[in-house]
Amino acid sequence: MTSFPKSTEPVLAVGGLAVHYGGRSALCDVDLAIDRGQIVSLVGPNGAGKSTLLKVLAGMLPPSHGTVDFDGAPLRKPHRRITYVPQRSGVEWSFPVSVLDTVLMGIADRTPRWRRYGRAEERRALDALDQVGMRRFARIQIGELSGGQQQRVFLARALLADGEVFLLDEPFAGVDVPTQELMVGLFDTLRQRNAAIVYATHDLTQAAATSDVTVLLNRRIVAAGPPREVFTEQALRETFGGQVVILTTPAPSPEPVIR
Ligand SMILES: Nc1ncnc2c1ncn2[C@@H]1O[C@H](COP(=O)(O)OP(=O)(O)OP(=O)(O)O)[C@@H](O)[C@H]1O
Ligand SMILES: [Mg+2]
Fold this sequence. Notes:
Number of strands: 12
Order of helices and strands: EEEHEEEHHHEHEHEEHHEE
Radius of gyration: 18 Å
Number of helices: 8
Low-confidence stretches: 249-253
Structural class: alpha/beta
Bound molecules: adenosine-5'-triphosphate, magnesium ion
Mean pLDDT: 85
């Protein structure tokens, strides 16, 4: 697996970012710099713009205003070193494709079109499936898997892609505890490779436990920093609006409670 060089430059940076869908604003005034080896969680209510921000960071959605830079250069389209795993509900599997082929798609743009995947690629894909406990499903169709199993396959694809940045939209949602633990282990592996991970979540406790930086988002950034610092009652109230969010403080690790 590739390790990426230490650098003081952020691997991803957005400045003065705004996104409008038609006339409606989904994000405004977003400034964010993400370093290599950093795990960043995006936290905010439904409709806060988390998925929108991830799509912009993936180069899939052009911002209405502002800049997006990857590795110091403007990002205008998806980049092979940026791996994006969509929110589960966003994936429709109406066409037949095997689990193995899904994983191999992670390296599709590195394989010439005239060539089928070779044995070496297939072995790497099977290894990646092994790492997420899905090797025995390699030959079955992706649409026949449960949501959590599909999520594991996406992770295997992400591993194979050797990405420098991983953008995951609600990877912990609706998956069982072993899958969550697997995910946290993979985050660690990726961090050791000096990759950056940005993920959206609704689980504040998970965010506190599994990120270096938490971004509280509600169309704009309310707070960003180490979770212990950003999970203040005021910032959470500002983020979640009407919902009352109370922190049990002081505590060794923040245990947010939503009433
Ligand atoms: N393709 C789209 N067309 C029009 N509006 C959109 C589109 N995608 C998102 N929006 C709007 O942009 C806003 C932000 O949506 P987004 O999906 O980014 O929120 P989110 O924080 O990911 O929410 P959730 O927690 O429900 O996943 C919402 O008001 C949504 O209605
Ligand atoms: Mg979303």
